[in-house]
Amino acid sequence: MTDPNRHSRFEDAQGLIFGTLMCALGLQFLQHAGFLTGQTAGLALLISYIGGYGFGPVFFVINLPFYWLGYRRFGLAFTVKSLIAVALLSAMAQIMPQYLSFDNLHPLLAGILFGFVTGAGLLALFRHGSSLGGIGILALMVQDRSGFRAGWLQMGFDIALFVLALIWIPLDRVLWSLPGMVILNLVLAINHRRDRYIAL
Fold first, then answer.
1. Radius of gyration of the chain (CA)
2. Using 50, 70 and 90 to split pLDDT, how confident is the model at 1?
3. Residues near 75 by Cβ (< 8 Å), separated by ≥ 6?
4. What is the CB neighbour count within 10 angstroms for residue 109?
């Protein structure tokens, strides 16, 4: 008998595709404006800006050490889904710029769109038992153990990353990046709650 409280494989598949596609779209807003974000995606963006590497490969490699943590805490299914999500996002981030461009995108709108679109994508991944690895796995682990919301922990990491980025990234671009980071983390902090809807 099918458990009505668990997602089917088809539902999980569409959730992973939707979530990674929304996150890849959010990244296009950021990269077009030369902005940053937080978590492992932000670290990968910073490395790609500094070294001229593609975001996708850097993001995939950065996440590799975190899968063991995810496996130990959340099990094989979560780890495999997260690996798939990271691989999908890495590929989409490399491919999407070939088919999507912006003639006019105001910096504030770029940040706002990134925050809401990526927040929706991450919520879909979380609710289908996945994440984009890295700090997301650590934040989910802390939330599961202590009840401290994942969004707030991620915001602390993001702030530290933004301060570090000032060494290489002009101040105005860092400041323009802040609205998107704040909106993204508020979306997660408000909506990603154990007492409402979280399916791992």
1. 16
2. very low
3. none
4. 15
How far is residue 53's CA from residue 50's CA, in Å, rounded to a whole number? 8
Q: How many CA atoms lie within 13 A of 76 on its CB side?
A: 0
- Taken as a whole, the chain contains a residue count of 200
Q: Are 26 and 95 in contact (CB under 8 A)?
A: no
Sketch the domain layout of the chain as residue ranges: 9-97+107-191
CA 102 vs. chain centroid, Å, equals: 22
Which tokens go with 185?
Answer: 């983390």
Q: Which residues contact 12 (CB under 8 A, 6 or more apart)?
A: 81, 128, 129, 130
Among 70, 42, 17, 77, which residue's Cα sits nearest to residue 180?
A: 42
User: What are the residues whose beta carbons fall under 8 Å from the beta carbon of 49, sequence distance 6 or more?
Assistant: 34, 168, 169
Query: Reduced to 3 states, what is the DSSP secondary structure of residue 89?
Result: helix
CB 51 within 8 A of CB 42: no
Residue type, 116: F
Taking the whole predicted model, whether its pTM rises above 0.90 is answered as: no
What band does 113 get if pLDDT is binned at 50, 70 and 90? very high
Q: What is the pLDDT of residues 132-184, one digit of tens each?
A: 878 877 777 788 778 887 767 877 887 888 899 999 999 999 999 989 888 98
